[in-house]
Amino acid sequence: MKMKTQDSADLCYPHLYNNSCKKPSSPWTEFVLVWIILSLISLITVALNLLVIISVSHFRQLHTPTNILLLSLAVSDLLVGFIPMPGEIYRSTSCWFLGDNICFIYNYLCFIITTASVGDVVLISIDRYVAICDPLHYQTRVTERRVKIFVCLCWLWSVLYGILFIKDDLIQAGKNNTCYGECVTTVDLISGTIGLVLYFIAPVITIIVLYMRVFVVAVSQARAMRSQVTAVKLRVSVTTAANKSELKAARTLGVLVVLFLITFCPSYCVYLAGVESFSAFSVFAVDFLFYFNSCLNPIIYALFYPWFRKTAKIIVTLQILKPDSIKNVLYFSVFKAS
């Protein structure tokens, strides 16, 4: 009787002895430390991406096609810090007590947000490819209106694409749970194959191919600019400055894309190999690594984009509340967004 009481204390729902999941078995000190660190990362992710969203939305000088894509990525990154990050922390440190319907909504939102993030990075790669490899037609081909349409299509696709993975839960919420206190979703072979192609293989190949092309062209342009004679420089100073701006943007966004691939690939590789082959902590670690990328993106902007450092200072010091906040920023040429 004593053994049964002790076992019941380890269950999420002791009154459902045979059908209840077991509580996560981590030491109390380890649980508190992990919870504090990951919660702090989640809060930083939300705060930093909120700065990006306010900056691009509020200051009209930043309403460029590239920055609209960064805005869309910042929205998905903010949602990552607001939903998937806390959700993964909760699932890894506690039983799921929120019910099957909330579990269904949570899993669906995670699919939408992560799919939109991948789509945004692909669009950013395409934007840089056109800007560097076809600069003469960039202004006419990549307009604000077209970029906004593609961003909307990206999010619409994410909403529709997520249904592919949660269709079983649409019929019956919690259908894939093996016990009470669990929140999981499973993917059948057909859906998994489609997801492998559309969500992993196609985006990764597209990103790598486009940026390899961008790198080759960028190197050749940099060499051409260095080899120009003084007389030629005087004639094409404006064009040269524009090229330098685009090259700098390409390098900055190249760092963003590389970090995205580094954090994205391990997570999908684990699921391809089969999560049952790895410990629960390993699966959680690679998932959170992918989510952690959402915290790194605004840090990249802060390191490489003067305009973000300037607008962040204006926002944090509440100067943005002043009527002339936009006019004051006009004095800074850093709003070239490069």
Automatic annotation (TrEMBL):
Q: Does the keyword Lyase apply?
A: no
Recorded GO MF terms: trace-amine receptor activity
In the record, the note on similarity to other proteins reads:
Belongs to the G-protein coupled receptor 1 family.
Q: Which InterPro entries match?
A: GPCR_Rhodpsn, GPCR_Rhodpsn_7TM, TAAR
Transmembrane stretches in the record are 32-56, 68-85, 105-126, 147-166, 196-219, 253-274, 280-304
Query: GO CC terms on record?
Result: plasma membrane
Q: Gene3D superfamilies, alphabetically?
A: Rhodopsin 7-helix transmembrane proteins
The scientific name of the source species is: Fundulus heteroclitus (Killifish)
Pfam families, from UniProt? 7tm_1 (PF00001)
The protein's name is Trace amine-associated receptor 13c-like
